């Protein structure tokens, strides 16, 4: 059956009218002019449940530490790192400004752990809890060699201490959680993984912290001193710095391992300081050691009446222009640079002896040297 030409024209006109009216028809019949029905969420993923559980359990014990410095901000990390490494140590702050970081409850006596570069040389310290309470605090002790400090609140009850884990059995790729106050935004949770282990990081005390944890969990200015947690909600490190040209998170953050924290903090609580173990030598820097073609720690000078002098160690003979002793082993471990030696000294108690292997004139010999507190 043939459709008349006039009929085709009418159909075409009708189709055109429908096309023109389509947006209005859609709005009239399909627009959601009433609140939509909420779709069932379903169960959260295991990772989501873990993150929520960790935050809910731990965050009440995380605080903000605010410090007023009228005499100037602390010196922070070694200046040689400042062009590439920025942490919230206030290197760009002027005297009289307020610095802030993060801390966490250590015990039921009101002791709170934070970074030394946060609390160091503070004229006035205030702690802001997760509930918003602002409480005066006092600095109990500071250990710049470890970038750790303890501040104390008196006469106020605090949430329970965070459970302590271990940093000895951590694995690269393990999930971690950081809680802190980046840019003053309190109670912020960031997540990531352990990116690397056994990193080294210089501190304001002129030494290096060994076995530092590297993570890609976002750490920004204000996170310093906060807890780095494992999936069980145990603290495994204290966040301390970021590596970033811009000073903001670039996916490389560092945390002091909890095994060091668990050794240093009790000393700070007891005496306000931590002994600095040493043997009484002045060593050459790595550049000089390389230029001299030596491998190990080159002894430049031996401190008079020190354990090193009593053990017969010798420094460089400036008149003859010859090397003295070069330390190549400590406590059975190879020593390639000063950090290797100080690492073994940190593991040796003050008052004990450490076995060294030194070379002089191409000959190796073993010597036992007493370890003393060189900070006294």
CATH architecture label name of the largest domain: Beta Barrel
Number of alpha- plus pi-helical segments: 7
Cross-sheet strand order for the largest sheet: 1-3-4-7-6-5
List segments where confidence is low: pLDDT < 50 over at least 5 consecutive residues.
Answer: 71-96
Q: Which outline best applies?
A: elongated
Structural category: alpha+beta
Mean pLDDT: 84
| Biggest beta sheet summary | 6 strands, antiparallel, barrel
CATH class of the largest domain: Mainly Beta
Helical percent range? Answer: 10-25%
The strand count comes to 21
- CATH topological fold name of the largest domain: Thrombin, subunit H
**Topology pattern, helix = H, strand = E:** HHEEEEHEEEEEEEEEHEEHEHEEHEEE
Radius of gyration: 30 Å
Account of the 3D structure:
By secondary structure, this protein is an alpha+beta fold. It folds into two domains: 44-274, Thrombin, subunit H (Beta Barrel), CATH 2.40.10; 277-373, PDZ domain (Pdz3 Domain). It has seven helices and 21 strands. It has helices at 5-30, 46-58, 116-119, 258-271, 286-291, 307-310, 338-346; strands spanning 62-68, 85-86, 98-105, 111-114, 124-128, 134-143, 148-152, 175-180, 188-202, 208-215, 227-229, 235-243, 253-257, 277-278, 281-283, 297-302, 326-330, 333-334, 353-360, 363-370, 372-373. The strands form four sheets. A six-stranded antiparallel β-barrel has the order 1-3-4-7-6-5. A six-stranded antiparallel barrel has the order 8-9-10-13-12-11. Strands 15, 16, 17, 18, 19 and 20 form a six-stranded antiparallel sheet that branches. A hairpin with a 5-residue loop joins strand 9 and strand 10 (208-215). It is elongated.
